[in-house]
Amino acid sequence: xxxxxxxxxxxxxxxxxxxxxxxxxxxxxxxxxxxxxxxxxxxxxxxxxxxxxxxxxxxxxxxxxxxxxxxxxxxxxxxxxxxxxxxxxxxxxxxxxxxxxxxxxxxxxxxxxxxxxxxxxxxxxxxxxxxxxxxxxxxxxxxxxxxxxxxxxxxxxxxxxxxxxxxxxxxxxxxxxxxxxxxxxxxxxxxxxxxxxxxxxxxxxxxxxxxxxxxxxxxxxxxxxxxxxxxxxxxxxxxxxxxxxxxxxxxxxxxxxxxxxxxxxxxxxxxxxxxxxxxxxxxxxxxxxxxxxxxxxxxxxxxxxxxxxxxxxxxxxxxxxxxxxxxxxxxxxxxxxxxxxxxxxxxxxxxxxxxxxxxxxxxxxxxxxxxxxxxxxxxxxxxxxxxxxxxxxxxxxxxxxxxxxxxxxxxxxxxxxxxxxxxxxxxxxxxxxxxxxxxxxxxxxxxxxxxxxxxxxxxxxxxx
Length: 464
Hints:
464 residues; alpha/beta; six-stranded mixed beta sheet; 17 strands; Rossmann fold; GMP Synthetase, Chain A, domain 3; 3 domains
């Protein structure tokens, strides 16, 4: 995605930049609300214009503010995106007309030396198109009147983008992808396609240091950070590479208890975070080590387990912990007591602010991913199964002993096993836990969710 031409959407707050972004990428990827300043971090997506893939970046609203303030940090992030752009879509609100802020940032854009396409959004109907002509005075060329909310003029916008980007040949990767799709249509195997990146989500409560962690892993100030809780509102995906290949890293908004979520915008942010968690393969649950394990942290961990994702527990702000041995033991005890279904979950302690210990995180993520993908040979599995039954036979139910015949692994991601026998629907939960713990210990499956499914053998003498 880094080699694609970059189109950056810029403008003052509440002119409809995120709505334009969603129209261009073809789905509701960015949060949209009738509130200024919804977008804070740069949001990236991919669009196709005239058969050519391009990279679209939605930015925070441009505002005059001191550098050390939140809005100052948001503006610095937007300016950084503009500096790398092949084309800037400078958006204004045709409905409200030009403002001094529009004129100020138009002058600033001219000094950046980047190609600019002036977009007058919210120009519904004839009156809106006539009002858009006022933007001629900005000196950025002919304004393109559109209404992103209603879809008016979006096709013209995509055509203008294609005209203004430098010409280039179709990248070889795209040609290969097209050949693969034709081959698949003719019945070729699905696995001829190259594997995608590992999908990794960073989740946790507000102000645990998730965005600081992402910036530390990337080695740049990609996300806006600060002492204010809840800075991240949308789920932001970026690409990262380690020694073993690409990683799609997603930073998410902080997850609070439902009872404390009031505003519509925060509900949207939480929904985006949960959706990112569901789409991930590995989830990093970030905890503030100075506060220990909170009940909300445990609720998030249980959600990760229910979704069948593998989890790495990240103890951030480790440099601020005074008694590290006692803190680590207290966290370990709480996890073993409250998260028995994730026994052996890997724990990494570090400081995202200083970078101390951060080098252990991605190798731990890779190991957790390998365990999540692990398969056990059927022969070894059934030898283990016989040993477990001999050591601790199934209990009597209604005066009759349950007969468990054999076990097989149905799939990985997460490891899922099926036990076959008679009247398995009556197998007590404590015996199921006995089998799951035995699987975890014998076949080295620490921390990953394990699914145990029960299948009863059919009785040929039963009346239909």
